[in-house]
Each structure stands twice: as C-alpha cells, then as structure tokens.
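Chapter summary example.
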Amino acid sequence: MADEILRLEGVSKSFGELQVIQDINLSVAKGEVLVLIGRSGTGKSTLIRCVNMIEMPDRGTMHFEDMKFEFGHHHKQKRQELQKLRTRIGMVFQHFNLWPHLTAMGNVTLALEKVLNMPQKEARDRATRELERVGLGDKVNAYPSTLSGGQKQRVAIARALATDPVLMLFDEVTSALDPELVNGILEEMKKLAQAGMTMIVVTHEMGFAREVGDRVIFMDKAGIVEDGSPEQVIYNPQHEETRRFLGTILH
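The structure predicted for these 251 residues follows.
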C-alpha cells in the first residue's frame, strides 16, 4: 500500500474463553481516515486498543512506521519501544480518562514532561497551543469537574495531539456526550482529517463516516466482514449482516 503507516497481520485477542478479535489483517495508509462500524461487542474498541497496545494481542504481527511487533507467548515487548509507539499514536477515549486532580494544562503537559522529558516551559507552551487549537484557550487552568463533557473531550484531544502523533485513534468519543455537544467534537475530528492526520475512528455517527471517512470497515463476530469506501459499505453493502446493522441505524 502506498505510504503504509500501519499493518496488522493475523492479530487476535481473547479474554478468557471469549474471542474478541480473530485473525485481523488490516493496513492503513498515511493520511487515511478509517472508520470502524458495527454493533457493540464486535471487537472494534479492542482492535484499536491493540494498535496502541493498551490491550496486548495474543498472536499476530503489527508493523507501525519502522517498528515491528510480534505477539504470542514467546514475545515480550520492550518498554522503550512501547513508549515510543504510544507517543507516536494518540488515543481519545469514550469517557475522557482525564486526571481529576490536574487542570486542563496539567493533563496535557503530564506525558510531555514525564514521557518525552520535555522542559516545563516548552511543555506548557505546547499544551497552550493545543488547547487553543481545540477552542479551550480560556480553560487552561480549569479542572475537569468544572468542564462540560464536550470540553473534557476537547482536553483529551489536545492531550493526544500534544505528543505530535502520526496516528490518532478515536474510540466512540461522542457516545458519552449530550446530543448537542456531539457536532462540536466531530467538527474537531474533521479539521484534523482535513489537515492530513491519519485516523482510525470507532463510531456510530454515520454522517461522519460518510463525509470524512476514506474507508469504512464493518466488524461482526470478532472479524472484518466488509471493507470499502463509504459509498460501497454504507450505500451498497455486500453482506447481509452489514445490511441488517445499517438498517437499524439509518432511518
């Protein structure tokens, strides 16, 4: 694939007896926006958590930039490699995952200072810039408890962007928000896509998938059922499972 940034080969993960993803083969090109859709419990979130190794796959291989990771009983990941991977890949979660005892500024500077060993002033300058970029220039000293859900999610986006990642993962980032706040966050994601950020997005927002996605993947029963352009997958699905799923959410 041209300018491939990520490739998964035979990646699988189970929790006890439950096989959550099975033999996933997937590649993502630089600058591509890949949208994962499907019912809850079909492995979408686990898949992207395996990409930044919050969840460690049981088997398979992952290539990311110039790094190669092999998974299985005999393969232990090196701490420095994991750290490098996680600064190159930004992740935004459904429930924000902010530190409640730190301000917006503190949440964004933490990884910069602790992981990237950035001097405090430089970290604060970068955090200020990222918070301004997501429209929170006036909230740098606010604690999460004083922010709306949409503002918390913007802090989380600023935090993920601050390490200067080449790939962003978004896991259902609007599903915990009040309906009137959803569009603002989708707009931030759209701006990122337009700026050329490579993104993997798990979402139920079909408008976003259609408008911003370059590719849409439908997952079911721990695997990839359908993979194509938004036009193909959303408007002309080939598989009965995809048609049934879309029938429940496209009214």
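To summarize the output: The longest helix spans residues 179-194.
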